[in-house]
Design brief:
The structure is a homodimer of 191-residue chains. By secondary structure, chain A is an alpha+beta fold. Chain A folds into 2 domains: 142 residues, Jelly Rolls, CATH 2.60.120.10; 48 residues. Helices cover 50% and strands 24% of the residues of chain A. Chain A is built from 9 helices and 8 strands. The first copy, chain A, is globular and about 55 Å long. The interface between A and B is medium-sized, with 29 and 29 residues.
């Protein structure tokens, strides 16, 4: 949990009292590989902070799965849209490996916002960062080639190739598994 | 400016003192039609609240323009990503008509955040809402047909057809102007 506190320090310094109030609302959870953390149609009432593991964020439409994001250790994971609006999630969140994470419930977080202006401000930093994440994702869909998107993902998580099966990477990149093999071969030659 | 205060009341109640502190930092601006509010490569240091008019948000890559958003009266407009990170904007913000808006500078806003926890909280609500806007935009690129995206835009601004030229609408929808004509014809028949 100290890792999480250090992570928050990048945004804001919480006093011991503020940190105690926050951390005693955190619940440590473990999830086996390939297990749903959030189902399609469920309302998301939590934010989870990943200590260990990997998650995918995907939707299922007419039987076809499409992955829109991966989350790794150090990331916050939530269907933030469902969390904010109270609407059912269109996406599924699933662990890819055995994962450990800390979860805070919306009602607890909102109570903390009311009691501690500094935690409210932390909430602003989290909202701003989730904004940046989704804005980058939108731009990468508009601007970038699959190759560039593959490089960016690899930069964010160097263990990607162990953590994420090839067919999921291809789904995220919006290409066929064969095209991903070609991209990887080109990279091996260059390296 | 009272319209803006009412708009904020949807998120949070500001006392007269808080509103006075905030509103005395707002500058009223006017911009002629087809004028840049933000250039490509410029760092965005403001948030603007539109009282009257319309703006487009677009990028220019290899000579090709692509529109990613429209903003109308009641919307907040900013390149929020550039605003938060201090990085140069990849996008251009341009007025489509003669427009009136209220602008607040980043340094003033951050001073207000420090002085008034309630205004900091307003900042969180703004960040959360901008998150929802961009998350919806990403989903609409992933999920929706051009026809659905056209309907959604029309629902947000019923004056759309007066406010936005056809070729810009087509660019936003990612289709050719001829395809947009076909969509509109189908709708006229149905109506």
């Amino acid at each position: 949990m100290e890792g999480l506190r250090k992570h928050f320090e990048k945004f804001i310094h919480l006093t011991d009292k503020e940190w105690d109030a926050f951390s005693c609302k955190l619940q440590r959870k473990q999830l086996a590989a390939r297990t749903y953390l959030l189902e399609q149609g469920e309302v998301c009432t939590f934010v989870a902070f990943i200590e260990k593991g990997a998650f995918r964020f995907f939707y299922n439409r007419d039987g076809e799965e499409r992955i829109t994001a991966f989350f790794f250790a150090g990331d916050a994971v939530s269907n933030y849209r469902s969390f904010l609006t109270g609407l059912p999630s269109e996406h599924i969140i699933e662990s890819l490996q055995e994962s450990v994470f800390w979860i805070i419930q919306k009602k607890d977080l909102y109570e903390l916002f009311n009691a501690y202006p500094n935690i409210d401000r932390l909430g602003r930093f989290i909202a701003e960062n989730l904004y940046l994440t989704v804005a980058r994702r939108l731009d990468s869909f508009l601007f970038d080639s699959p190759e560039k998107r593959y490089d960016d993902l690899l930069r964010r998580n160097s263990r990607l190739l162990q953590d994420v099966p090839q067919f999921m990477l291809a789904s995220y990149l919006g290409i066929k598994p064969e095209s991903l093999s070609r991209i990887r071969k080109r990279k091996t030659k260059k390296a």
